What does this fold into?
Amino acid sequence: MALKAGVVGAAGYAGAELIRLLLAHPEFELAVITSNSDEGTPLTQIYPSFEGACDLAFTNHENPALKECDAVFLAVPHTAAMAQVPGLLEAGVSVFDLSADYRLDSVEEFESWYNAKHTSPELLKTRAFGLPELFPEGLERLAADHAAGKPALVACAGCYPTATSLGAAPAVRAGWVDGTVIVDAISGVTGAGKRATQRTHFCSASDNFEAYGVGKHRHTPEIEQILGLKDRLVFTPHLAPINRGLLSTVSMPLAESARGLKIEDVIAHYQEFYAESQFVHVLPAGSLPRTASVEGTNACHIGLALHEASGTLIAISAIDNLCKGAAGQAVQCANIVYGFPEACGLPTVALPV
Amino acid sequence: MALKAGVVGAAGYAGAELIRLLLAHPEFELAVITSNSDEGTPLTQIYPSFEGACDLAFTNHENPALKECDAVFLAVPHTAAMAQVPGLLEAGVSVFDLSADYRLDSVEEFESWYNAKHTSPELLKTRAFGLPELFPEGLERLAADHAAGKPALVACAGCYPTATSLGAAPAVRAGWVDGTVIVDAISGVTGAGKRATQRTHFCSASDNFEAYGVGKHRHTPEIEQILGLKDRLVFTPHLAPINRGLLSTVSMPLAESARGLKIEDVIAHYQEFYAESQFVHVLPAGSLPRTASVEGTNACHIGLALHEASGTLIAISAIDNLCKGAAGQAVQCANIVYGFPEACGLPTVALPV
Amino acid sequence: MALKAGVVGAAGYAGAELIRLLLAHPEFELAVITSNSDEGTPLTQIYPSFEGACDLAFTNHENPALKECDAVFLAVPHTAAMAQVPGLLEAGVSVFDLSADYRLDSVEEFESWYNAKHTSPELLKTRAFGLPELFPEGLERLAADHAAGKPALVACAGCYPTATSLGAAPAVRAGWVDGTVIVDAISGVTGAGKRATQRTHFCSASDNFEAYGVGKHRHTPEIEQILGLKDRLVFTPHLAPINRGLLSTVSMPLAESARGLKIEDVIAHYQEFYAESQFVHVLPAGSLPRTASVEGTNACHIGLALHEASGTLIAISAIDNLCKGAAGQAVQCANIVYGFPEACGLPTVALPV
Amino acid sequence: MALKAGVVGAAGYAGAELIRLLLAHPEFELAVITSNSDEGTPLTQIYPSFEGACDLAFTNHENPALKECDAVFLAVPHTAAMAQVPGLLEAGVSVFDLSADYRLDSVEEFESWYNAKHTSPELLKTRAFGLPELFPEGLERLAADHAAGKPALVACAGCYPTATSLGAAPAVRAGWVDGTVIVDAISGVTGAGKRATQRTHFCSASDNFEAYGVGKHRHTPEIEQILGLKDRLVFTPHLAPINRGLLSTVSMPLAESARGLKIEDVIAHYQEFYAESQFVHVLPAGSLPRTASVEGTNACHIGLALHEASGTLIAISAIDNLCKGAAGQAVQCANIVYGFPEACGLPTVALPV
It folds into this structure.
């Protein structure tokens, strides 16, 4: 029998993507969708792509039916997640949180970057960080807990941290990287959210390319935490005129000991690192990832190059910011917690064109 | 056991879409893909979205393995299909032809519009026209033939004819339409094919909108044939800066007898007309179709409006030109011929954003 | 000495375009820009393209400096224009109004379509309609008045009416057209205005094509008035994923007497019709207009085709909705009223790519 | 009296941009345009934006009229420029070369990166490098020579080198930068040239973002040469789905001595550095450049940020790759050589939207 799933913040872009994935998932039944601002509105009125596929309407975040779900996916802004999580866990509901509220290990760092008080810091000890390829243990621990009847809390990784870390981790964990890592990344406009603003207006965002939040984007401490690069990471995000897609170009100075590496060695190491993954594909030498080739999927494509004169490794990784960078990763985490095959219900093939 | 399927002309856009659909189809096994110009090249090199999902390489059109398939889908230009069809049928292979070669009932009309001699006109008598919502009988006849061991030939409808006819047929068949019908339609750039030309160069096609082939597009006789509007159809196609998507705006002068219709009556009639369809959705009054909402799916969304002062019915229909307008429709026809559920393996929900 | 010019509603897209044109105009000095919502904000903060070119800041609409201008251009919504015009005229300021307030000859029609009371209907008698290629007389009358010291009021034509009428008028005025005219037109997203809405969000508008306002767009009575086609015009606007550009495809049933026309005759007639125009270019047979080729300019490109079987003339015209469809046309009208060369200060060459 | 100008390779994108600029330039008369592949074709057939503005047709590169020009602008691929330059100089014609043939000081470096023999290395001694804001002396020398009757040869800087160097030079020349500089840059698709390829096909390039030529782009030695960063520069170019525009994000490790700098100091230094420039605008703290805001112009917008924890200065610069990055810069160089005002005939204000 299918598990009942709820999506909180379902009218936003990550929420709508969760709906898409859960409707197609053989083990979940989508039971509740909430959006305070669209309460009462049928889903198809906001997202006509669900015409004929789902006749749910949005309810509000206080809908008691959420507590009767097996799993609730939170696609709300930071602090709004904290407001819901303890109550859901108490009701025995497992929570897959796409917000930033439980991502950072350090409460202080959270409170300083997000300028908000953390109201349930004790949960940071038991939550798992949701980036399965790099942190499988926490999710396996929750799977065991869940089998023993305990609800799970997963803090799913952010979009930039996911792509950047998948690209950098195999080198960093191998001890190859020394010095300051430069991350120049781009996101599609869905990354800026559904709220209509001057920046997301078609006439501003199309035919344009720009950087934003230079030196102060909130994904910085999360990437530092994942990679162990405190104060050694320069992260510059950019906005590209595409709907979905995130590409992270990571330039890593090689440690003395790693200077002799050939590109074939690097690629072989990365392929070995991701040998078990159904989602991460390390491309052969000379091939570079395209965001279009992973759009709508939970895949991550990684390309690699060496700049030998300066001793720099360049890793470039592409994901769909709403899928592997948000909703897809959350479902992947849920699959692990519930003991389903990791790729269950998750798209892996993008439109070819 | 899965049926073996082959795709001829698999490196083109409709061919790649066939690959995507057949890989996801539970009843087919993709066995052969051909492309004379890309012979020997792995599929993933041309279309990296298949990374991890398919390790076939392109063979050439003469690959004898085609004749060992149960079904072959032809995604080649007109006249190239004719060159293959008789041999395949003779070998007992069912053929789903996406080209124009067997669409027109009249050999003369084919030869005049396509400026080519038809080399197997006798097949026109037994082929079915592949537009299931409007012409189910032919496909059902082939299903019976197939059950009796006879291979099928389906001439799948073109992209503009599919969208335009789905929008116009309920009114035309009800006898509501009199006079000249004006069809202004747009296609995404995939409609112009994979060949790189000045017109399909990003720098020409983006930030631009233009008409083309005014008064002489080869889909004109096909639409006339489907709707029975010989010399009463003005078809003006336009190129829009989107990858996939086709929207057809059909303005139909109402016959005297239909002048009193209210928009609610019209919508009710259309909804009744498509009540059995899993793909065609007639939108409520005030809603209009968006190409993005059907992208990557076999769905067709139809919106309707009346201009009472002049007695004109406006039907607007949106499809994905590569899916419902090409590959998806071919698979839908195959589903019918083989007795599978009509929507088997076919996507119906587009990315919400 | 340069004339002092003011722009009211200068933070909107048409307003910003007026700023661009007036800054480059040798006979005007841009003295005042107003925007109630952006009062106090420097222009370059909203529109960084003016960096280094203009250090004005927005003031509010009540800025008394407006009455010290020679010419004020109004780029405000309907009814907001009415609120300003009488006072400006009284102060001796000539007004070039881009809103709809003074376009329709009939007060009743205005009040019914715009659902608002007209507060200065007497001005409709003396205002000129601003579409110089089709209505030169009114503007010449105002030029004479101006020379005699009287301020002018020009109601500049709307974007869809401009493109559609330039495409249709040569045929309609020749008496060639009988029956119902079908206009299917597209606009770039700037046509929807600067306000950030779900419809204009990049993620809704990009990769999408849709119709809107079918059968009820407020430009309908204006086109009917210009062409004399009351109740014989079906106008269906569409939204295309481009910033600027408007293309109107006009299908006109030919009167019996015009059935024998050859396309060369039609083109010759159109070229003759626009022989004096520096902005309207009638393309040779086989060529069709592209919106990109007129972007940022005051030009209009027209292509023509005949569908002989049904006796239909198809005229396709492309303009930039913000320039020839709004700000450029206003400056063109001002040039005529002030006796400057008609093309003075107006761009006519688009970026080639 | 206007100087006669010729454009060789005029059918390419940089060539067409040269035509646009020269047609609008008060001191030049465009006399000859050449394109071997489009010989005999009217300009307006390839670029309809020139309708009504220019009735020249393409001639071939051997057109003797080139040698009667005062100035010839070469917009041909590398090695094709070398084939023309000596003959033109000998005929007394000044040459503004947009190719790479005379950019690199070192013949060896040219021959190794471009895999071609240099046939006129002696000209490297007298040519000026065409990046006026950073290398004014060479151009002033040529201006003096020209006044004395000697034809000039200017090797105009490439697009990536221009944007990157304008962003980095003020810091590098101040001695602030130590260690390896990381340049992640994007170009619009015009940067890939007019040839229709799979990569530039609309259906590949739109809705996509990717890197290319990582570690081996030919602009690398040119940037190294301009900035004096031999083997200390990692340059990773990316392709963005815009027509025009180039944005370079340069991350520079600060030397010990520059660690205490505040962002206000940095900005003040940059503004001082470019105080005389009419084209380069250094934005205030918190503002970042947008490619759309310089499209179609010869402007460069620069934004700056400091990452204090790692001691990194981030400079982001935006130009139009075809204008300031190619044709505009060539005309700017010509203005200097001929003693015209530096901004003569050059656009500085982009479309606001």
Observations:
- The CA atoms of residues 128 and 154 of chain A lie 5 Å apart.
- The longest strand of chain A covers residues 246-253.
- The first helix of chain A runs from residue 13 to 23.
